[in-house]
Design brief:
Strand content: under 5%
Number of strands: 0
Low-confidence stretches: none
Number of helices: 10
Largest sheet: none
Mean pLDDT: 82
Radius of gyration: 17 Å
Length: 153
């Protein structure tokens, strides 16, 4: 549990920096720790171990945390400053569109802005199925998102 908590803190603070070179050492250390815990050979693939233990890779943890943040912001579970961060297309367009239930995607010119919670969170949210986004509680939403991410990883 301690390893998961440490991973969660680092991934939440780092955002998409886990794709950068200096995060590879952390990712390798995490894989090594999982192999030690499961008594696996040091040169075996880590992906099957992660699947068997239902543990998300670092990049997937980032997606899950981002999706949870957007859910909380849209459902009033965060402070007021964050609730206005995302705007539904229904509030922007006067007429009905196929994307009415999705979040409006703001334009961005830089890579840094692309990885911000506003842009990246919007894209992740819009990629989710409506059965997930319309979950009745945060617990159900998080459980469905994690199952989806485990299935796709």
């Amino acid at each position: 549990m301690h390893l998961f908590s440490l991973t969660l803190i680092i991934v939440t603070l780092s955002g998409h920096l886990c794709q950068q070179v200096h995060w590879f050492a952390f990712i390798k250390l995490r894989k090594k720790a999982i192999r030690i815990i499961t008594f696996s050979k040091r040169n075996c693939h880590s992906q099957p171990i992660f699947r068997r233990l239902a543990i998300l890779p670092v990049s997937e943890i980032n997606k899950l945390q981002t999706q949870c943040f957007v859910y909380k912001a849209l459902n009033g579970l965060l402070p007021a400053q964050f609730q206005s961060l995302f705007e539904l297309n229904a509030n922007i367009h006067e007429h009905f569109t196929r994307q009415t239930t999705k979040i409006h995607v703001s334009s961005c010119r830089t890579k840094i802005r692309q990885y911000s919670i506003k842009i990246h969170g919007t894209k992740l949210w819009n990629s989710l199925d409506s059965t997930i986004t319309n979950s009745p509680s945060f617990y159900v939403f998080k459980k469905k998102c994690k199952a989806l991410l485990l299935e796709n990883s």
